[in-house]
Design a protein that fits this description.
Oligomer: single chain
Radius of gyration: 18 Å
Helix content: 25-40%
Shape: elongated
Structural class: alpha+beta
Number of domains: 1
Length: 95
């Protein structure tokens, strides 16, 4: 990596856990860690959401309820990304 002579190195970690029959905890985590050309830590930006949501399954729920739950998970992921974006802007502004 050092041989490429980067100005900045970014390590991006993402984790999403969607609802399943066995899991009712939704999670979305986004973290970017920034390092300079010498791989010295500069800072990080992050966004994270965790929420307990009762699972909805096809065999006993209407399509509208299932679609609403999928949209809820998408909205929660979007909230985590918005937090990440705000954190990134704050990191850049403080540099």
């Amino acid at each position: 990596l050092i041989l490429a002579h980067p100005d900045i190195v970014v390590k991006l970690d993402t984790f999403n856990r969607l609802l399943t029959q066995q899991n009712s905890l939704f999670e979305a985590h986004f973290i970017a860690r920034f390092y300079d050309a010498d791989l010295q830590y500069i800072g990080k930006a992050e966004g994270s959401v965790e929420k307990q949501i009762p699972s909805v399954w096809v065999h006993d729920k209407a399509a509208q309820e299932i679609a609403a739950q999928i949209e809820k998970q998408r909205d929660l992921q979007l909230n985590a990304l918005k937090q990440f974006d705000a954190s990134l802007k704050a990191l850049v502004a403080s540099s």
